[in-house]
Amino acid sequence: MRILGIDCGTECTGYGVVETDARDELQCIVFGGITFPRHAHMADKLRIIFEKLSHVIEEHRPDQVAIEDVFYAVNVKSALKLGQARGVAMLAASSHGLPVTEYAPLSIKSAVVGYGKAEKEQVQMMVARLLRLDDIPQPADASDALAIAICHLHTAATLCRQTAGK
After folding, report:
1. Residue 68: other Cβ atoms inside 10 A
2. pLDDT band at 161, cuts 50/70/90?
3. Residues carrying an active site annotation
């Protein structure tokens, strides 16, 4: 299974594609961050997110998409902007016929580190270790996106084992 993880943001939207191989080992396919011109208008940022994520989907052909659920925003305006970015990311996935699953930050941290209140640095280090990367993926949003993809793969594997046992 190949998963595109997306960590939405209005300054940088991270993405990461992870798959499991024949031995159920995690493999990092690609990761990166979508950044924007310094004074870009929100409509332009949303277009860029849609175009870049569409390109990643077309090039790397994930089976599913996993995205972080909204959990906290400094203010209402920030929450609305984040919601717009998430909506465009979901639109990019659904316009390519891909199912989208949302995960709470607590679930992502639990799946990757084993502790839902893990620090950001702990998550980044575990992402690098699980994917056998020499360095922590940069930007940090890309590392978060890879963590979201890993969370989905672990969750899907657990659900598969549970239904096989019934």
Report:
1. 25
2. low
3. 7, 68, 141
